Each structure stands twice: as C-alpha cells, then as structure tokens.
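Entry 14. Ran structure prediction on the chain below.
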Amino acid sequence: MAHYLILESRDPYDSGDWQNMQQIALDLQSRGNSVTLFLVQNGVIPARKGDRHSGRFAELKQLGITILADDFALKERAIESLAEGVNSANMDRLVELCLQSDTKAMWH
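Output, structure tokens:
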C-alpha cells in the first residue's frame, strides 16, 4: 500500500474541518496504508500537553499513525511540552518523508 503524508497547518480552534482530516488519516490507515500526520504552522497548537484536543493524538498513535510536529513552529508558539503520541521533527525530516517512494502528500 501507499504512504500518506498529511500536513496539518490548521488548528481546531479556527478550522471547522480539523476533525475531518483526522478521520481521513484514520480511514487511510484502516485501509492498510502507512500514515504520517505532520503538524506545521498553527497545526502544532493542539499538540500542546494538556490541550483539550491533545488526547486525539494519543488515539491516532495507538492506531499506528505517526504524528510529528515541526520544531520551528513549536518554538515560534513557545510550546515546550508535547501531548502523548506527538514527537518533534525538523523540516529535513519532512523532506525525507516527501521523498519516500509511494508517498502521497496532502496539505490542510
């Protein structure tokens, strides 16, 4: 199957379809695909430890979805503690993921 790279630049506080993208990730994963959710820009906001939406990332991680948060976006927003299931990564890692064979990227 394919590898899907979903770049999430929006947060649930200003984007009504944030949860829809989480569901797309789950649907892709349930069909046997590999899925990475890469949080960029304001997409890192719900990755704060203790955020009311942060529990969603632990659920996604348990189902086999990799969740990464852009370290630069985290620093810009003074986010130091990440929710369970979320790991920090740099843009070099994003480029590596984009260049993997059979990767399909989606930006939200």
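The longest strand covers residues 3-8. Will compare against last week's run tomorrow.
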